[in-house]
Write a structure and sequence with these properties.
By secondary structure, the chain is an alpha/beta fold. The protein has two domains: 240 residues, no CATH class; 151 residues, GMP Synthetase, Chain A, domain 3, CATH 3.30.300.210. Helices cover 32% and strands 28% of the residues. It contains 15 helices and 14 strands. Strands 1, 2, 3, 4, 5, 6, 7, 8 and 9 form a nine-stranded mixed beta sheet that branches. Strands 10, 11, 12, 13 and 14 form a five-stranded mixed beta sheet that branches. The longest helix is centred in the last third of the chain and has 29 residues. The radius of gyration is 28 Å and the shape is globular.
């Protein structure tokens, strides 16, 4: 009997250990957070506060109301609630918010981080350093810069087609919908990585609140500085001045560029397309150009990259030379003149005109970002860095001081693929084709 007990002892001991080790797992509900007891922050806005404080604005998603009896239509349609708290950092602002928000506030589902224009010009690293350290923030949320105050902007996010504010942000900023009118890599991860590199220009989405839309006073008259002799081009607009009336009183169009941690300027829709094209991040987008046959009219190309953009960098001592090779293609989807672009002569003229425009606009953008703002938005530094033997040599080179001296050239090729389903231009029946 004793011998039998000795042989079974290891098995009994193993079973006891399994039970003891399983107890902490079986009682793991002690730190459970029930979703119905949590307040999910969807968007955070930051503005400068009094002294050295900040104003943090939180947009919290409103859960679907159960038992709609007695609820007003306004309450039923409301998708977010917004409040603003003064604090030295986000954590302290959330702690203050818990004094009047019943549910546990969480940042795990935040979709947008909105930087007010004033705080962006002042410097945003003190705020972003906290975001980097926080375990609640996902690094995949969108970063955007708004004209005016972030508080006013967030208070006027009033989706009309979606009741789910989180889904609204995802759809509104979906690259398949907006193409290259917004910067492709506009998530926090990309933004903070670029900001931490000396001389590199970090880029966010440009957005704006439209008080004229909110008050029903928007009009479609000619914009300031625009010619009466030609049609306006959509891509020449920025968020905040799109010619429209109605719908949500906020807009997303263009890019905001940062030098170190301070806002240096904005890029309009077409400049953002050029920016994406040079960075090999261009997404298929409709692009308006002046019709070479009639400068008063526009034509539209469904544009995409024919092949990957190539950037070659050469360094000779302190001299940096950069060459961009771009190949684009597109379909002619809208033309208002009577010019038949199916003819070889006219087609060649159109391709040359678009190539000239793309090259000219590319050089203007490079002049603005590299020479005027002295920021490298195109990751030129990555290739320059590889020309040094050691990390110390690269650091001693002081890349930031050499950005303004970069010499660049752009080669652009454009090929027109098709003309839509109709072969020639649409003409009135009694107008003879010349």
């Amino acid at each position: 009997m004793g011998a039998e007990y000795v042989t079974k002892f290891p098995r009994i001991l193993a079973n006891v250990l399994i039970v003891l080790l399983s107890l902490p797992i079986l009682t793991g509900c002690w730190d459970r957070q029930d979703p119905e007891n949590m307040a999910f922050v969807i968007a955070i806005g930051v503005d400068p506060g009094p002294k050295n404080n900040y104003l943090f604005t939180f947009a919290i998603a409103v859960p679907k109301l159960l038992g709609a009896g007695g609820q007003s239509s306004d309450a039923m349609n409301k998708s977010i609630v917004v409040h603003t708290v003064e604090g030295s950092n986000i954590v302290s602002a959330i702690l203050a918010s818990q004094s009047f928000v019943a549910r546990k506030i969480t940042l795990t589902h935040a979709k947008a981080f909105v930087l007010g224009e004033n705080i962006a010009k002042k410097g945003i690293m003190p705020v972003l350093s906290e975001v980097v350290r926080s375990q609640e923030f996902r690094r995949s949320f969108y970063v955007m810069t708004t004209h005016g105050n972030a508080e006013t902007y967030i208070k006027n996010i009033k989706p009309t087609t979606e009741t789910d504010i989180s889904l609204w942000f995802e759809l509104e900023l979906d690259p398949k919908n907006v193409g290259s009118m917004l910067p492709y890599n506009s998530r926090f991860h990309n933004f903070i990585n670029d900001m931490e590199k000396p001389g590199t220009g970090a880029v966010t989405i440009e957005t704006a609140y439209r008080p004229d839309i909110s008050k029903g006073k928007a009009h479609l008259s000619q914009g300031e500085g625009e010619s009466e002799e030609r049609q306006p081009i959509i891509g020449e607009q920025n968020a905040g001045n799109v010619r429209r009336t109605g719908e949500v009183p906020v807009e997303f169009l263009g890019s905001a560029v940062y030098k170190a941690d301070k806002l240096i300027g904005f890029l309009n829709g077409d400049e953002t397309k050029i920016y994406s094209m040079l960075r090999d991040e261009y997404l298929r987008t409709a692009w308006d150009f002046q019709d070479p046959a009639n400068k008063e009219l526009n034509l539209t190309i469904d544009m995409k990259a024919q092949k990957r953009a190539v950037m070659k960098v050469k360094r000779k001592k302190n001299k940096i030379k950069v060459n961009f090779s771009i190949a684009m293609e597109g379909d002619l989807i809208s033309v208002q003149s009577n010019t038949d672009y199916t003819k070889s002569k006219n087609r060649k003229k159109l391709e040359q005109s678009i190539e000239k425009n793309l090259k000219s606009d590319s050089m203007k953008l490079l002049d603005k970002t590299i020479h005027k703002w002295q920021v490298d938005c195109f990751h030129i530094n990555n290739q320059v860095k590889s020309t040094f033997s050691t990390l110390k040599e690269w650091e001693d080179y002081k890349w930031k001081k050499h950005v303004k001296d970069i010499d660049y050239h752009v080669d652009v090729k454009f090929y027109m693929r098709g003309h839509g389903d109709q072969v020639g231009p649409a003409l009135i029946g009694d107008v003879l084709k010349k």
